């Protein structure tokens, strides 16, 4: 099935205010996620899917890039005011003259992809089975502004570890879905698709694929959704591996006072950084439709909006996006958003997370949990705090890395996933 056929339609914040708003968005999943299970599907077939963007869409993109009108920029300010115009011009020039979408499309199509109806929506996913029968099923879940593109470097090492310096005992069957409203999954036409509902949909997907027991891994919204999945379906999860561990401070003041000073200092440092990084949450959490008009119409605007996050949330030695990401990687992810017209529908998860309360409190996650803690992650949770909300059995302080771990520090993430699930055997 083609991509087109596969889709049904084809002033600085004050520091304290910024931190509180950000935590209210990201930690609201702690207290409350849709108040009813998903609808049963009349059509339960799982159908093969191939990404195949029409030539006309590629030509339209080229024409829009030719007409891009970039703003002025102050001298010697680099990325402080937002996406650096000089780098954006370079990226757009590459997108227009050198980037080969068909080559990237072919690389993505090397993975086995499918669609199936979940809760009345067509959900897209990669299902890459390992040739090793004993392999552990593993659900890997992306966030925003990511996509399945984030996982292109870890899927084969997970499914065929012997080809990448690993042991066949560490093999996985990988399921990597596009979240509802993201990329090649259908866009919801009704409100209510908050992280809890998405967790129910992922549980239904794994059940349909015949996986009664499986592991889960994710970051950003993927980490939040997988946490809910573990809380709602603890008997199904073997283990929860997260590179985005969020937890509130302990309510017991004596226990909270035991938080190591170094952990608090690192957390406060990241909070201070994020105080000037939350404007996107304010907009996407309140008026995503207005924002979407510009980003859905302008590839230059879309690229600026997304690449700013890859720059700001990553561990870049020279403060340059290509310290860790190639132009092809950045533009493949941006192109997926562009060609599927999914920037608005993907941004709505921020609105839905604020607007739709959970059906019940999450409580303690009893599933064995591993935290892979990258130092430039946008939020850092002290282990002591995490232990009050999760059954932490592994905690790895990474030597480097930021928010987009699967792309940025592939080997570190891969090694930790393998070690964690080996530990559970």
Question: Mind explaining what this structure looks like?
Answer:
This protein has 425 residues and is an alpha/beta fold. It has one domain: Rossmann fold (3-Layer(aba) Sandwich). The protein is built from 18 helices and nine strands. Strands 1-2-3-5-4-6-7-8-9 form a nine-stranded mixed sheet, with helices on both faces. The longest helix is centred in the last third of the chain and has 15 residues. The protein is globular. The N terminus is likely disordered.
Give the number of domains.
Answer: 1
Class by alpha and beta content: alpha/beta
- The number of distinct helices, counting runs of at least 4 residues, comes to 18
Helix-strand pattern: HHEHHHEEEHEHEHEHHHHHHHEHEHH
How would you sum up the major sheet?
9 strands, mixed
CATH topology type = Rossmann fold
Q: Can you identify the CATH class?
A: Alpha Beta
Count all strands and give the number. Answer: 9
Regions with little confidence, pLDDT below 50 for 5+ residues: 1-35
Nearest-integer average pLDDT: 92
Q: Order of strands across the biggest sheet?
A: 1-2-3-5-4-6-7-8-9
Kindly report how far apart the N and C termini lie: 38 Å
Which radius of gyration do the C-alpha atoms yield?
A: 21 Å
Shape: globular
Q: Helicity, in percent?
A: 40-55%
Keyword list:
disordered N terminus; 42% helix; globular; nine-stranded mixed beta sheet; 13% strand; 425 residues; Rossmann fold; 18 helices; alpha/beta
Offer a concise description of the structure.
By secondary structure, this protein is an alpha/beta fold. The protein has 18 helices and nine strands.
